[in-house]
Structures
1.
Amino acid sequence: MGKKKASGPKNSKAWAAMAMVSGVAAAKGTNLLLDRFWKTSTKRNPPSNPADPDVALWEAVAWSALTGAGVALTKMFAQRRAASYYVKSTGQRPPQLAKKSR
């Protein structure tokens, strides 16, 4: 019979760390890529603060939408990869992603 790995606070902390690190890394990497994309496509620096009244409305909306969607998607993909790695390493889902029985 296969040996089932233990779950508990230690695994929960490991998952929390994996999720946080993967999310932060994905967000930072995405911001760097989006900055380059913005500079290349508009020939301008991205707005440092889209709420600034001196930033054109189109530019504020476009930058906010681009960064919001880009960061959210890459963070989600990175955390899904971290969850897959966690499952392969421990044989079970992270506690925060465990399916609830009805």
2.
Amino acid sequence: MALRSRPFRHLLQWLIVGSRGGVSRAQIIKAIREEPRNANQLATLLGVDYRTVRHHLDVLQKNGLLTSMGEQYGKMYFLSSELEENFEVFEEIWNEIGKRLKRKEKERVSE
């Protein structure tokens, strides 16, 4: 891991692993990587309330993970160049979350 990406890794861990809405934020990032989308498209795709999606988009954009073009309902979101350049860091964190969620689900089912 490059020294330059360490603070970026910490930022991603804080926004995705260290906060309640982290899984939703990760799902938003994955969806936008597939193709740029607006908040309404994301809400429909992910089955999440529009206001919740807007909140997560604001957090991600404020922290430099997303950029946007356009205004109001037509505003489209894109991954920032820094996130694009360090996407493998995101994938490592996302894969680790997936493993944790599967373990928790197994524990819950076996109870």
3.
Amino acid sequence: MVKPLLIAVLLLPCITESFSQSDLLVMKQKNQVIQTWIPGSVIDFQFSNKQWIEGIIKKVQNDSILMEQIIVRTVPDAFGFPKIDTAKMGLMRLHVNEIYGMPKRDFGGGLFSNGVLFQLGSGAYIFLNIFNSLIHSEQVFSSVNLTRLGIAGGVFVVGSLLSASHKTYIVIGKKYHMQTIHTQ
């Protein structure tokens, strides 16, 4: 009678620990949840020293994260074809306030707002204008053509300014913040 009771008492902490849930890590915009991570999720963020870190979350507890830092790269195999290689860098514990930024997830709208389309279009126009002028034996820097090239150059500069001011990540701070949610 004592042995089964003793075994049950010894196994009880193991059973409760295996069924216990972990906390959640959430990114919020004001009070709206934007993204959620649980243990086992892959997270990519900018650390407080501006270094980008990628890892697998092992545990979320109180206001800290225990994660296994990884590096995912594309490398050539023996035949020269690309393959994905993962290197594990070890465990890392950090506080949620040490997360400086998160990558933006909106890829579609960025084409018009980041200036790349302006740069590509104006660069192609300048190239074709000069190429056609040389083929047709016209003056490249005539007064009419110089105005066209100047406008295309101005559009390229506007695209460059848009590209320089466009951020590809969200800064954690006033508008966005990271928070842990206790699930028990």
